[in-house]
Write a structure and sequence with these properties.
With 473 residues, the protein is mainly α. It has 18 helices and six strands. It has four domains: 178 residues, no CATH class; 131 residues, no CATH class; 94 residues, no CATH class; 30 residues. 58% of the residues lie in helices and 6% in strands. A hairpin with a 7-residue loop joins strand 5 and strand 6.
């Protein structure tokens, strides 16, 4: 008996709209870079005039990203209205609205014109233009595009440098999906996510708080719990980047300077990470993540139904598609165009009913992907050639736990006994980032000060009788 079609995120993701061309100037249709010397010689208003095309390009890209999320909210609302009893759709609508509001807050608070600097108007602008362009790229499946946009929004509530890193990661993720074979783009994206996952685990382990038993207060801890301190949460991205920099040669990652990175942390804790993290990044581990994405995409199309069939002598429930109808043609075409995968990679024929194809298990698909990736890695022109994975075996949860345990003790020892390594101590001396809300507050204070000064000058009271703050200049 066929089950109801699955309602997928792709069914409530907006179709890409048309995007206005980004403003350009200079040679080869590209904006010329802003030089610090030129920037420092101008006032805020002069900068916005002199570099108006740069500001306009940033604004155009953010408007496109915002419009993309607004459409996802509208279509999520329509889906929820059509099925009001479905709590999943209601929660999805709530999360979309929250993400959109987070973006609006960021654009007002941290991306107003006077908040931007040359780095933002040069490198970050280019990454935003890439994101804007790729969100309208039909060659990337809609679910992946929406996922990238939502992940970007989640990474905006950090410092300026952290935002720049998150924007770069989003652009890189989307761009990789369009380079060469789509599956190699999926592999690269999944690999990067896997590395970040393990490095984030390592960073959180290094900040973990010890747990002591009631009988042994002050003795050896019986375990550790994740730190909930806002400072650690907001600055994790910089510590993750520090470890990425430390592992850049081993894992073929881009080295990115970051003023919030303690170079001593990068060197000392990075050395410990080198001994544990690379062994967790195997071809099989990455292929497993790619298999997850492919299978989730397949189930999310709503074109498969769950049936009891016998495949390879084993009877059980399988997701199947009828090969005699248009659904199979639509499914295989989309699969090839959007994910770069042939149907033979994901389907097997049932033992008796040859009018259907059954979706393979996660384990089977992972094994097939390992073989495919192995062949790609041997090709000199392949996008995954030379990435470094030489081990194809699975990575178990126990192996991950063991690696984190072996990272934890020496990392905690280094941080607790060598203050110069601690990233919190290093960052404590750095200035807090200025936001648009703070600027507005200071501006209102300045107006208030001028009013009070005038009141003082017009008053017969002495200066000592009034509380007058020094006006901001």
């Amino acid at each position: 008996m066929n089950s109801s079609p699955v309602v997928s995120q792709s069914q409530i993701i907006p179709e890409p709209g048309t995007h206005a061309e980004n403003p350009v100037s200079g040679k080869n249709g590209k904006l010329q870079p802003i030089h610090t010397q030129d920037w420092n010689s101008l006032s805020s208003s002069q900068r916005q005039t002199q570099f108006k095309d740069h500001y306009k390009a940033v604004q155009t890209s953010w408007k496109g990203i915002e419009a993309f999320l607004e459409k996802s909210v509208d279509q999520a609302a329509q889906a929820s209205s059509a099925d009001p009893a479905n709590p999943g759709l209601k929660n999805l609508l709530t999360s979309r609205k929250k993400a959109l509001q987070q973006l609006k807050n960021y654009l007002f608070d941290k991306a107003a014109p006077r908040m931007l600097d040359p780095m933002y108007l040069n490198q970050t602008r280019e990454h935003l233009q890439d994101i804007h362009q790729q969100l309208g790229n039909d060659n990337i499946d809609l679910e992946s595009r929406l996922g990238a946009a939502l992940e970007l929004v989640q990474g905006l509530d950090v410092c300026k440098e952290g935002v720049a890193l998150n924007i770069l990661a989003c652009a890189k993720n989307l761009n990789m999906r369009t380079q060469g074979h789509p599956l190699t783009g999926l592999y690269q994206s999944a690999r990067d996510e896997l590395i970040n996952q393990h490095l984030l685990g390592a960073v959180r382990a290094s900040h973990a708080k010890p747990i002591f038993s009631k009988e042994n207060e002050g003795g050896q801890p019986i375990g550790y719990k994740e730190s909930k301190e806002p400072l650690h949460k907001s600055m994790e991205i910089h510590d993750v980047q520090a470890l990425r920099n430390a592992l850049s040669k081993e894992l073929g990652l881009q080295y990115l300077p970051d003023r919030y990175i303690n170079p001593n942390y990068e060197k000392a804790i990075g050395a410990i990470a080198k001994s544990q993290i690379p062994q967790l990044v195997t071809t099989h581990a990455v292929a497993s993540r790619v298999a997850d994405e492919l299978l989730n995409w397949m189930r999310g199309t709503g074109l498969l139904s769950e049936q009891v069939l016998s495949v390879d002598g084993s009877t059980g429930k399988h997701w199947v598609v009828d090969i005699s109808g248009n659904q199979y043609k639509d499914l295989t075409t989309s699969l090839q165009n959007e994910m770069g995968a042939d149907a033979t990679l994901l389907f097997d024929s049932p033992d008796e009913d040859f009018t259907k194809l059954a979706l393979v298990s996660h384990e089977t698909l992972t094994s097939r992907l390992v073989e495919w990736i192995g062949n790609e890695q041997d090709k000199p022109g392949s996008a995954v050639h030379g990435l470094g994975e030489t081990f194809h075996q699975p990575v178990t949860a126990e192996q991950i736990k063991q690696a984190m345990d072996q990272f934890l003790e020496p990392a905690k020892y280094q941080l607790e006994n060598h203050t110069h390594i601690n990233p919190d101590v290093f960052r404590a001396a750095l200035p807090e980032p200025v936001t648009n809300r703070l600027m507005a507050h200071l501006f209102n204070d300045a107006i208030d000060d001028k009013k009070k000064k005038k009141e003082h000058e017009d008053s017969t009271h002495t200066q000592n009788a009034l509380h007058i703050r020094r006006p901001l200049r």
